[in-house]
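Re: S-adenosylmethionine structure - here you go.
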Amino acid sequence: MNHYFTNSEIKSNLKEFKLEIDDKSFIFATDNGVFSKKGLDFGSRLLIETLIKENLSGNLLEVGCGYGIIGIILSKEFNLDVDMVDVNDRAIHLTQMNIKKNKSSSNVFHSDCYSEVSKKYDYIITNPPIRAGKKVVYDILFNAKDYLNKSGVLYFVMRKEQGALSTIKDLNKVCEAEVLIKHKGYLVIKAKFVWLDS
Ligand SMILES: C[S@@+](CC[C@H](N)C(=O)[O-])C[C@H]1O[C@@H](n2cnc3c(N)ncnc32)[C@H](O)[C@@H]1O
């Protein structure tokens, strides 16, 4: 079956849309074969709106960036060095276009979860690819520890019906995970890993 993250045979239909968020205007190129191609996903909006209140600084990695909407908005909102990764080549190409369109200084590269990630970050964020399966989602969430600085934080959004509560329970075995906001069945979760030597 073709998913939006394995889209090489899906015919292209490049479009653009405008978006206002937090009194700033953005323009995004989008296409067939990428997640939420018609505009900002509800969960992604909730994650952005929650993070805008968190006052971030330093560097940030977004895993599963799609066409770059979350990472680009946060790179313009804060003084942040943003890297974004995805496995979908079309999404990566759109993100490169969207970085230029929005005059963002962020970077994007291909990576299967963390396979090509070599740095450590202050923040890792994700609206994880539920349709890719629990193994991929848990790889992104649990292995974030290896790519975070010791004071680093993981933020993600997940629906209750997609297993958010059991994910929090599992994370709490290795993390301190708390729900920052719950809205219309979507939860934004903040997780800090526990380091034995700190
Ligand atoms: C739910 S979408 C979120 C997209 C974008 N961040 C947004 O909010 O619109 C999840 C993204 O994860 C990507 N993805 C799927 N499997 C992946 C993997 N193994 N490693 C990295 N990204 C992956 C998909 O291609 C998709 O773009």
